[in-house]
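Notebook entry, structure prediction.
Reason for the run: the old model in the group folder had no record of what sequence produced it. Starting over properly, with the input documented here first.
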Amino acid sequence: MSFGDPNNPYGPPPQQPPAAPPGAPGYGYPQAPPNVPPQGYGYPQQPAYPGYPGGNMMPQTMPGLMTTARVLLYIVAAVQILIGIFAIFGAATINDASNAGEDTFGNNGLSDLGHDSAGIILVIALLFLALAGLSITLGVKFTRGGQGIRITTMVYGILGSLFGVLVLISAANANSSAALVWALLWIGFGGVMAAAMIAPSGVAWFNRPRY
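New structure, fully documented this time:
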C-alpha cells in the first residue's frame, strides 16, 4: 500500500489551493487585464450616436420633407434664371427697336416709352436673377445652416405663396388657364417650403448638433 497513490482511499486528503484574499475574483474566473474599467452587467456598453436635442438618438439624415423643399428650391432657381435670361433678351430687343424708331422718326414719345419699358424689364430680369441666387444659396445651406436659414426659407416660401395667390386672382379675372396652372404651382411650391421649415422635423434638423 502506497500513500503516494492519488486513488488510494486510505491515503492523506489532497491539498486544497490557498484561499483567495477578500475582494479578489474566485478561482476559475478569468482575470481582467489591468487598466480596464469594469463593464456593466450584460452586453458591453456602446458609444451613443449623436442625435437631435431632447434625447432622441437619431442619425443625422435630412428628413424627407426637408429634401423635398431643397429640391423645390433648385427647381424655382432654374425657373427664375430662365425668366431672367429671357427678360434680358426682351429688354434688349425693345431697346433696339426704340433706337431704330429714333433713327427713322426722330426722338418722339414712342421711343421714350420703349426705352422706359426696356429699363423696367431689365430691372425685373435682375430681380429674378437675384432671387435665383437666393434660392440656390438656401438650398446649399440646408446641410450646415442654422436657424437663420430656416427662418429665411420659411419667409421666402410664404412670400412665394402670396405671390402665387396674386397671380391666381389675376388669372381668374383674365380667364387664363396657363396663368392659373402657374399660380397653383407657385402656391404649392411656397407652401411646401414653409411647411418644411415649420414642421418639428425641420426645426430639429436646424437645431441638431454639428461635428
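Summary: Confidence is low (pLDDT under 50) at residues 47-59.
The old model has been moved to the deprecated folder.
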